[in-house]
Amino acid sequence: MIQSPDIAVPQARILIVDDEAGNRDVLEIILKHEGFLVTTAAGGEAALAALAQQPPDLILLDIMMPGMDGYEVAAKVKADPVTRPIPVVMVSALH
After folding, report:
1. pLDDT tens digits along 13-63
2. pTM for this predicted structure
3. Are β-strands 88-91 and 37-41 bridged in parallel, bridged antiparallel, or unpaired?
4. Which of 11, 23, 58, 60 is 20 to 30 A distant from 86 in Cα terms?
5. Collapsing DSSP states into helix, strand and coil, what is residue 41?
């Protein structure tokens, strides 16, 4: 039997945006353990700066953040033709 050489599969990049450090840390640990490349941002402005440097494959976005909330960040992401295709999953502790 002929074995194919190992082919490197690029790791998906995920941006976690949450103002709570504990939430970011838990998500980062879980996702890194699953093999994802993870970047974190503590707020909306930091998230937009991270997007400009290295667009991720997925954004996990907290809704309730001081300053720029998740809705505003999502609106800016979807308004930009470069970042519009990036899926955004809204994450919240709201009941």
Report:
1. 999 999 999 999 999 999 999 999 999 999 999 999 999 999 999 999 999
2. 0.88
3. unpaired
4. 23
5. strand
DSSP output for 66-85: SSS-HHHHHHHHHHSTTTTT
Question: Which DSSP letter does residue 35 get?
Answer: T
Report the distance separating Cα 72 and Cα 50, nearest Å.
16
Instruction: Find the radius of gyration of the CA atoms of the chain.
Output: 15
Give the 3-state secondary structure of residue 91: strand
How far apart, in whole angstroms, are the C-alpha atoms of residue 77 and residue 20? 21
| Residue 12 in tokens | 């998906």
C-beta neighbour count of 59 within 10 angstroms: 27
**Which tens digit of pLDDT belongs to each residue from 66-91?**
999 999 999 999 999 999 999 999 99
